[in-house]
Amino acid sequence: MAQTDTTSRKLNEVTIIATSRLNNKTITSAQQINSTDFIKLNALNVADAVRNFAGVNVKDYGGIGGLKTISVRSLGSTHTAVLLDGVQINDAQNGQIDLSKFVLTNVSQVALFNGQPDDLLQPARAFAAGSVLSVKSIVPNLSIIKPYHVLAGVKGGSFGLVNPYFQWQQRLNASWSLVANANYTYANGRYKYKVEGDGSDTLAVRRNGDVKALQADAAVYWHKSDSSDLTVRFNYYNSKRGLPGAVIFYNPYTTERLENEDAFVQAKYSRTFKNSLRILLSSKVSQLKTRYLDPQFLNTQGYLDQHYRQREAYQSAAIAYQLLPGWEVSYAVDASYIKMDADIYNYAYPGRFTLLNVLASKLTKGNWMLQGNLLQTNIGERVKQGKPMASQSILKPTLMASFKPFDHTGLLIRAFYKDIFRAPTLDELYFYAILPRTIKPEDVKQYNLGATYQVKTDNLLQDIELTSDAYYNHVANKILAIPNKNPAIYSFSNIGKVDIKGIDVTLKIQTHQISNWSLSAAASYTFQKAIDVSDESSSTYLQQIPYTPKHTLALNAGVNCKAFSIYVNHLLSSHRYYTGNNLPEYLVPGYGVTDASAIYHFKAGAMPAQLSVEANNLSNKNYSIIRSYPMPGRSYRLSFQITI
Amino acid sequence: MKHFNFKNLFTAITLVAALSACKKDRIVEPIDIPAERAGVYILNQGNINANNSTLTYFNYATQSSTSDIFSAVNGTKLGDTGNDIKIYGSKMYIVVNVSSTIEVVDPKTTKSIKRISMLNGTAARQPRYIVFNKNKAFISSYDGTVAVLDTASLAIEKYITVGRNPEQMVISNNKLYVANSGGLDFGNPDKTVSVINLSTLTETKKVEVVANPTSIGADSYGHVYVLSNGDYKSIAAGLTIINNATDAVTLTSADLAGGYGSSIVNNGDYIYYISASNGILVYNTKTQKVEKENFITDNTAITSPFNIAYDDINQQLFVMDAKNYATNGQLFAFGKDGKLVKGYPITTGITPGAVVFVNK
């Protein structure tokens, strides 16, 4: 009975500095945000930043501690791999990463790649997902003259938020440097919201949404003569939070708690040899611990206290070599072993071994670029009791091409085809698996055709970038929950098929500075028709899948004058349905929400400092992204940061 | 000449919209109109923690259904997981599990008379089922109690402590039998039926049955039938039969196991319940033998039979189909011959779990 979907949350954090600008004219569609832009987007965490990307649907359960996951092009969160400095943050238990846990104070860049990044030299895992969300840490950039860099700041505001953070960068000698970060978040999480439907006419207060989270990380960097790099990073995350849960009429009391403790060490070594040979070695060991507590559960003890632990060891080796001018090939192999423990009834204690092999090739000839790879995946599992998933051996191809039709204009045509899958998560296979479950991997075929156009002028409009992509995705063997009369016999199976047609359009404009004034603006528009094509006899046949708006628009505009900047964001979503029946009673209304921020840079003595104020949901709109999980009304955040 | 006629386009769109709107809520074939019945209320559970339980009303005279009639009439919603609905006297009682309320409603108008909170301080008792005897309502709750509610004053007079996570109840031989599931203790379910003396309103004994009992029913030959789910591991699901005179167990059978939470419906010399293989089992209460593996004779396909009810006036068996538990379900009615009644199925809300018939 009444098992709890406790498992969808855990994660880690990351560190920061300014990095290079990503070339938008990539062979697969890519969107990015750099650290200097986070403030423009009123972004506190990675989820706040990525909601401005085209093709992205952030599922936000509301509030500081609310789960925030990303679905790219309607494929669902399990099809997006989140990479931290090129190494995956993996959650085999539920396959999705809570992006609200990535604070941005130590992040230099967040980028989303449909398909995959187009670099040939990557771990095999970077080739093995429907899309890749790449988060890059701040890398020290210090000199012998100023061998250290210290940054301290504090954010505070609505929801009782207090968020001090600290960063220390130190140059040790010509080859070695280090970065350390600490970030502590406290919030009582309370906010007012309007309840519709229980007959009340006053505002209710969202309770049990308090969060305490500590994120700490340290990394050492070794660099030698422009050809060898080594990074060793340690991350630690600890949080305790209340789960405010869905709004339940007439029963406003929620007491469930969630605790996470995650730690990992990852190392990366890369080297470029004179003969163009490049190698990349990546290693990681991690442990994710989750505790779920329901202090009012009506069993004999009078509470439910569950502990989950995932441990993973991961090793990747990749090699790339230029066979001929314009033709590079690469090979990557990744091996990982994951062990999952949980003190829940009849648990299988699964261990999963995964071996990935990728062979890739990139050909550049004139205005053409052709790239392709074959991904071969082997998965084997063992369980202590019950039935393990059958061993899998799967071969999947990806093909990409780009073409520049004219030498002297910034127009690029691009296309890709990617055939990919995701393995069932350990929860889908074993979480309260009362009856044995037979689940095959979920298959996705992605087709994309797009164009990018960039103009740089000496006119007022200094820089214009326009990208547009049309895509078709077909999901087969979609893993769906199969409920039972008996809630204890909940199961999963491959019963779904989804057809997704969409269009992503992005536009960025930047003006020249005119007597200290400059303007920037960006827009991302997404159209998605994602229909259920599983079963002709079902009432959901050809209906839009749940929580998928047809239209999403993100608008950002900013004006900068000397040390002072103001930014405004507007996010617009058309209505969605929370079930597969597109009926008025299941409609979740569309919304438009405006955020604004102002930043002032100044010197505190000799030290650069920055003061900013942000206001979210300016019009105090009452809305929700996930039904029964109300979003906060107008809220404020004040930040101060100083650099030593 | 590129004048596009917006007016014609607008007319066409309006017409299409109007035509499609007209089609809604009316079923194509007429349903046989029963003599005394006014209609049927269908309680849709919705999904746990989705706060979307609704009441659908199907009006026999107009042959149309109104979805979510409770909020249409009252302006408030039922809340989370409506689990049981019954009419006693002039009032209809809706047991809402996660919201922990009993909605008392006028069945003729669907107007709410009172919403009784089943919160114990800040803790939800989680009410499950309701039965009636001599102007008292008995409400089982997951917190291990049976509440005694006066149907005139609508005040709860007493909480009788029973076993763990009690589910269905039945009154037989002037005793209240309560199935104690212990379903929230994974791997260690309860395995008792509490027997409550209806005069003293106290538990007199506990009868041991197959582990994890949830469904309970009775016949006119002195049998109390209990369907249990086992522990999903080493203990199999099964049927236990109790003698209502001696409270002794007369039969335990794994072969006669039923579907979780199915009502056990008594009709003359038969009881019906959803079998483990998702048929509607017909059991002869006189001969104590299985009469038929399935009541349905015309191969009507029901995706996920969730519960059944019997209308003894019209002699029709109703089957609630939960489909995939996330989208609208259907309600089927079968005649004595086991064939689908003309005009059915009708569309319900999400997870239709109980129905109640209303007289004119």
UniProtKB/TrEMBL annotation, chain B:
**Protein name, per record:** YncE family protein
Cross-referenced Pfam families, in alphabetical order?
DUF5074 (PF16819)
Gene source species = Mucilaginibacter pallidiroseus
* Signal peptide range in chain numbering: none
Which PROSITE patterns does the entry mention? PROKAR_LIPOPROTEIN
What InterPro entries is this protein classified in?
A: DUF5074, Host-pathogen_enzymatic-act, WD40/YVTN_repeat-like_dom_sf
Task: List the PANTHER family hit by this protein, alphabetically.
Answer: DIHYDRO-HEME D1 DEHYDROGENASE, PROTEIN NIRF
Gene3D superfamilies given in the database record: YVTN repeat-like/Quinoprotein amine dehydrogenase
